[in-house]
Amino acid sequence: MTRFISHSYNDTIDFAEKYAQNLRGGEILAFYGPLGAGKTAFAAGVVKGLENLSNVSSPTFAIINDYGGNPRIYHFDMYRIETFDDLYSTGFFDYLEENAVTLIEWSENIEKFLSEEYNMIKIKISYGENENERIIEISDENISI
Amino acid sequence: MKILAFDSSSVTASAAVSENGAITAEKFIDTGLKHSETLMILIDGVLKEAGLAVRELDLIAPVTGPGSFTGVRIGVSAAKGLAQPFDIKCMGISSLEAIAYPLRNEDCIAVPVMDARCSQVYCALFGCGNKSGKSERLMEDSALHLDELAELLNKYGKKKVLAGCGSKIAYEHLENNSQLSTLNSQPQNAVNAAMLAYEKYMAGTPAVSCFDLLPVYLRPSQAERLREGLGNRG
Question: Distance (Å, rounded) from C-alpha B126 to C-alpha B144?
């Protein structure tokens, strides 16, 4: 596990941007953390780090944003996904076939449907002691920042 | 009798044209799930090779599932779009029945299997090797957990042949259950859907208007319950 302390919104973005250099396509980044933790900030940093100029926002209502690019980036928000049928009808499993970098917010909701066969990296973001402090834990040992 | 069939229900995509039960053109690609970009090119290709315009078709036979959610939607939408302007009749073909079709003359039980994720498969059973040359459906298209499939197959003593994109995971699972079965790894091909559509049409299966053509999404609710019973393994 890799642990990082962020002291601000921009700090999270900068860290994620550097972290993105480890991604080659085919990874699923599963975010865990409460509202306001900075999941979307991390996602925005990854998109920026992969030299993709898209505007990043949580697809809370669209459920999925397609940012294109190479590697292609898909951004899911599973906040409203509750059942396997919900997940199936987003086309989620089809997107996984594409060797894209897949960002998933609210992974808590679909955790039991994420198979271990996938190249999945868990990113847990929690509140630190100070107001703007966040603790970012990445379930990947071999990363360079 | 001119039939256009296509299959975008799994990772592969294919299209075929038949005239009076004989295949006159076919195309197949296995380049990943980009059916929204490739299916129409395949359809255009087989129609050109067969020397046919869309309006000359008597029947459009898309594979309507079960399978990939996006793929099934693309196939059904394509069929509706092609059929509507010329009021061409449609006939949805089961992906599983099409997978089992090449095994119809082999003395076995054909077990078409597609990966439905989370240890679930879409599957059906067909008794093959009948004198009539036609297979006999032994079970409706279903979404089952691999354990349920294993249990089901235990009831049949006859040789079982697994086929389809989920056959490999099912084969590995069944081996663990020390079941005898063999593997047929032929990819899905619209040729089988075209042949099936012709046979069904000739046997009196009614074709439908494009407005009544529907996708088939099987709900793996039973499998989901089973999995939840195993607890959260994430």
Answer: 16
pLDDT tens sequence across B172-225: 888 765 556 777 878 999 999 999 999 999 999 999 999 999 999 886 554 455
- Yes or no: say if B207 and B116 are a contact pair by the CB < 8 Å rule: no
B228 in contact with chain A, both atoms CB, cutoff 8 A: yes
Residue of B nearest to A30 (CA): B234
Within 10 A of B161 (CB to CB), how many other CB atoms are there? 22
Q: What ipTM did this prediction achieve?
A: 0.74
Tens digits of per-residue pLDDT, A30-40?
999 999 999 99
Q: Which residues pair with A105 in a beta bridge?
A: A77
pTM of the predicted protein model:
0.86
Nearest Cα of chain A lies from the Cα of B221 at a distance, in angstroms, of: 8
Chain A hits for B119, CB-CB cut-off 8 Å, are 115
Spatial separation of the C-alpha atoms in residues B71 and B64, rounded to whole Å:
9
Burial A31-55 (b: 16+ CB within 10 A, else e): bbbeeebbbbbbbbbbbbbbebebe
Contact A29, A46 (CB under 8 A): yes
Q: How far apart are CA B133 and CA B128, in angstroms?
A: 8
Alpha helices in chain A (DSSP H): 9-19, 39-49, 84-88, 92-95
Please, are residues B151 and B122 in contact by the beta-carbon 8 Å criterion?
no
* Structure tokens that stand for A5 in this block: 């302390």
Q: How near does any CA of chain B get to the CA of A88, in Å?
A: 7
Q: Has residue B233 got a pLDDT over 50?
A: no
Segment B121-162, tens digit of pLDDT: 999 999 999 998 899 999 999 999 999 999 999 888 888 999
**Cα–Cα distance for residue pair A39/A58, rounded to 1 Å:** 9
Compute CA B14 distance to the chain's CA centroid, rounded to the nearest angstrom: 11
Q: Is B225 helix (H, G, I), strand (E, B) or coil?
A: helix
Of B118, B219, B228, the CB nearest to A85: B219
Q: Which of A98, A96, A105, A87 is nearest to A46 (CA)?
A: A105
For residues B101 and B140, give the distance between their C-alpha atoms in angstroms, rounded to a whole number.
15
Kindly state whether A98 is in contact with chain B, defined as any CB-CB distance less than 8 angstroms.
yes
